[in-house]
Amino acid sequence: MKKFIAIYHAAPEAMAQMSEATPEQKNEGMKHWMAWKEKAGNAVLDFGAPLMGGIAIDTSGTKTTSTKQVSGYSIVQAEDAEAAQALFNGHPHLHWHPTASVELHEFVEM
Fold first, then answer.
1. Which one, of 92, 43, 49, 96, lies nearest residue 70 by Cα?
2. Which end of the chain is more exposed for a tag (fewer CB within 10 A), N or C?
């Protein structure tokens, strides 16, 4: 099995919308995430977490506010990239805001 990190992206306005949701709205949204996790089963190695903001550090050590729109991550396993991609068919992140996307990267053995 190969491991992949799914990096969730969404625009700042989407993240602001999420942070302003009521507890009931957040719970309702999490139902969809938990259903995805249940469906994916053992393929989900690390369910992950939401991420807010970030700091970019360049080669000189200069730190600036990140301009990447990273909003969370998960780690999954699959036979290959195609199977990993299939895990995200119908994923709830892709349906909550028009700016949402998922990026998959395969882990490289060291």
1. 49
2. C
